[in-house]
What does this fold into?
Amino acid sequence: MPLLHSIVHRLDPTLDGERLTLTAAPVEADSAEPVMESLVSALNDTYNTKPKGWGRFAEEGEHAGPLSVWLKDYLAGEQPFTELATALAERLVSKLQEQLSVSGYLVISHQRQGDTETLFMGLAHQREGIGIDDSHQAVPAAQLNTRQLTLAARINLSQWQSDSPDAQYVSFLKDRGGKKLGEGMAALLGMEEGIDAPAETRTLLKAFSDYVEKEDLDDEASREKTDTLVDYANDQMSRGEPMTLDELSALVDEKQPKAFYEHIRNADYGLSPEIPPDKRTINQFRRFTGRAGGVSISFDSHLLGSSIEYDATQDRLIIKQVPKQLKEQLTKQS
It folds into this structure.
């Protein structure tokens, strides 16, 4: 992941905890330095695994902000990276000083991976550790905790510049317990939230389950396709990119690469062409299968506790919503 530009500012709360102070770096970091690239890469890896809010820049109204204008000037070569980063840090201080009460280092970077360029911002904290010096003695060694981010955001500059009406190119960390911080981040970025990643991911998995049932696949084929979907989602998460319906459809069924996509469109699930995968929802999605004594059962794990219940004391599986095809067969038999 080549770094094009990077810089590190410091944020500190005042003694009364009511304001933030910014100590801006006078110059850029050396982006060619491997350690700096490793730092930014580690922060991005952490960011990719966290719940996020997604959206795009607000063009007008109360949600609109100056960041999109600053970025246009920067990408046009009319504003240096240091000026952009300092302006962004100053805006963060003004918008979020009531929500932040601990010191940290604000890392801002412009990076390229393949054909995609992004602007990343993350607040990391320093922690005390132990190191060994040249004389083989234990000594205090401060280090940044790259596994924990108080706040972070990323803008997919390539998607933004493509001007796609469906692109959700702005994202930010959205901790379930930090509503005010999330609202402050959205205001800082001047964005309107769009896709609800957990809800969209759940709808996609529901569409997939319906597709598997409609195709009447056997257990092995069903497990194989489920693994394909989960592997694809996890791969996109690790890269910080959304799932695309057409790409997923081609992976789910290589012989009929448009089949799953057409199933989604024909059934009108209301899914966006690109869906940011939600890690928690994906991790809960697996299929339970079993066969014994002439009985074969297979169902998606996320149905357990809702339409399917397991009574461990009685060793009973209770199906609340019997599939239509099975219901018709049972009704005829009775």
